[in-house]
Design brief:
It is a single chain. The chain has 88 residues and is mostly helical. It has helices spanning 3-13, 17-24, 28-35, 43-53, 57-60, 66-75. 59% of the residues lie in helices and 0% in strands. The N and C termini lie far apart (46 Å).
Length: 88
């Protein structure tokens, strides 16, 4: 996760580290470590941070780019390459 995004949204909301900690139940040091890329955030922490900042989780964790998703759809899935069972 790009933690500069966390810092960015916290700044845009005008929320201090301590206020964000109170809203999330996370330790202020933990949030600081996450923001400064000294600690990885868990998915639970990311959810709490997103809720407290009133943003979607995707704002903190960008989804895969659409070109990669399109390549995946065009190529099909492993299950589409399976042969039908005998007697089908």
């Amino acid at each position: 996760m790009e933690m500069n995004r966390l810092k960015k949204y916290r700044g845009l909301r005008g929320i201090t580290l301590r206020e964000l900690a109170e809203k999330t139940g996370l330790n202020p040091k933990t949030i600081s470590f996450i923001e400064n890329d000294r600690q990885k955030a868990t998915i639970v922490s990311i959810g709490k941070l997103a809720r407290a900042l009133d943003i979607n989780i995707e704002e903190l964790i960008p989804l895969m780019d659409t070109t990669a998703a399109e390549r995946g759809r065009k190529g099909g899935t492993a299950s589409s390459n399976l042969k039908p069972e005998a007697g089908s």
